[in-house]
Specification:
By secondary structure, the protein is an alpha+beta fold. About 0% of the residues have low confidence. It has an 8-stranded mixed β-sheet. A 3-stranded antiparallel β-sheet has the order 6-7-8, covered by helices on one side. It is flat.
């Protein structure tokens, strides 16, 4: 077996070993057997919320365990095909099996990332907000570019995107927008994007073609289901209604139906204007508010809660998590992990997986991004 193929096989075996340890196959197999027994209880659905949670856990474990087994079997089959092809001098069979190994490595890498999404809320759908920072039209245009980037990322991964709120800029771009991204582990992926994003480019709005630096912030919080109880006193919430001010058409309407809820004790505010009726928008806004308060509780349990909150409240220098430089050179660099690429067009078109994966791994294994320098 050629050295290149042997190296590929060894890398896959090591990844599978990490997956088995992360999942704790023996413990997970025992838990799955327990869940299967509970699922046979005819009284299970007397408590729909408990039943739903149990079935979701069972499905997740089944997928993880069967996935490891499938990878191990395919690896064995591919190795057998290579040995057979080499014994018979059939280079075509060897090449076919080698290509299958490379695809298998990609599958294992995907499952490694999925294994990192084990947080309490990772499996939920996600709300994503974009807010323009100081800088007027420049930052508002940048905010719209970010919104498009995340929309393209979601669509590429087969997620559903729904616009809930959009406030247009005076000349171009947006002041703010909120979308809901629905799909498996949507929050688990998108939570890595929360923070301030910095853009450096030749401004299309500057007649002197000077370089400008713009900032916009991204906030992410989970769409919680009925199994998560968040009690909010109505007396603690101020309700405001207004005329919707978004783009209209496929995004949001412009009727007198927009609803803003402000949670007075925390200052958290949410806006919904996607629905055609004030009643629908009010219900959606309450769901969003509960989700925001739940996300705050999650943040309190994380070591970096204080830093994350600072990044959300100050949209400017010293708080950015990633820089996007379009002039005089092309570079996108994440300041938490050091991951960088010169493919700025690809990133702005939604190719974010490498950045997300690195941040997930950093959080899972406790590494830090100290001493990572920003780009000019």
């Amino acid at each position: 077996m050629r050295a290149e193929i042997e190296r590929l096989v060894e890398e896959i075996k090591q990844s599978v070993g990490l997956l088995r340890r992360h999942l704790d196959v023996e413990k997970s197999t025992a838990r799955l057997a327990e869940l299967n027994k509970l699922a046979e209880d005819p009284n299970l659905w007397n408590d729909p919320q408990k039943a739903q949670k149990l079935m979701q856990e069972r499905t997740s474990l089944e997928d993880s365990l069967s996935g490891i087994g499938k990878v191990e079997q395919e690896l064995e089959d591919d190795i057998g095909m290579i040995e057979l092809g080499e014994a018979e001098g059939d280079d075509g069979v060897v090449a076919e099996a080698e290509a299958a190994l490379k695809n298998l490595k990609k599958e294992v890498a995907r499952r490694e990332l999925e294994a990192l999404l084990s947080g309490e809320a990772d499996r939920f759908d996600s709300y994503l907000e974009v807010h323009a920072g100081a800088g007027g039209t420049e930052s508002q245009d940048w905010a719209q570019m970010l919104l498009r980037m995340y929309t393209r990322w979601a669509e590429t991964h087969g997620f559903k995107v729904e616009y809930l709120e959009e406030s247009e800029g005076e000349e171009a771009g947006i002041k703010s927008a909120t979308i809901q991204v629905s799909g498996h582990n949507a929050y688990g992926w998108l939570k890595t994007e929360a923070g301030v994003h910095r853009l450096v480019r030749i401004s299309p709005f500057d007649s002197n073609a000077r370089r400008h630096t713009s900032f916009s912030s991204v906030q992410v919080f989970p769409v919680i289901d009925d199994s998560i109880k968040i009690d909010i006193k109505e007396s603690d919430v101020r309700v405001d209604t207004m005329r919707s001010g978004g783009a209209g058409g496929q995004h949001v309407n412009k009727t007198e139906s927009a609803v803003r809820l402000t949670h007075i004790p925390t200052g958290v505010a949410v806006v919904c204007q996607a629905g055609r009726s004030q009643h629908k928008n009010r219900a959606q806004a309450w769901d969003m508010l509960r989700a925001r308060l739940y996300e705050i509780e999650l943040k309190k349990r994380e070591e970096k809660a204080a830093a994350d909150q600072a990044a959300k409240t100050d949209i400017g220098w010293g708080h950015q998590i990633r820089s996007y430089v379009l002039q005089p050179y092309q570079m996108v660099k994440d300041l938490r992990t050091g991951v960088q690429t010169s493919d700025t067009a690809g990133v702005l078109n939604g190719e974010l997986d490498d950045f997300m994966a690195a941040t997930l791994a950093q959080r899972a294994f406790g590494t830090t991004g100290a001493d990572i320098e920003d780009v000019d």
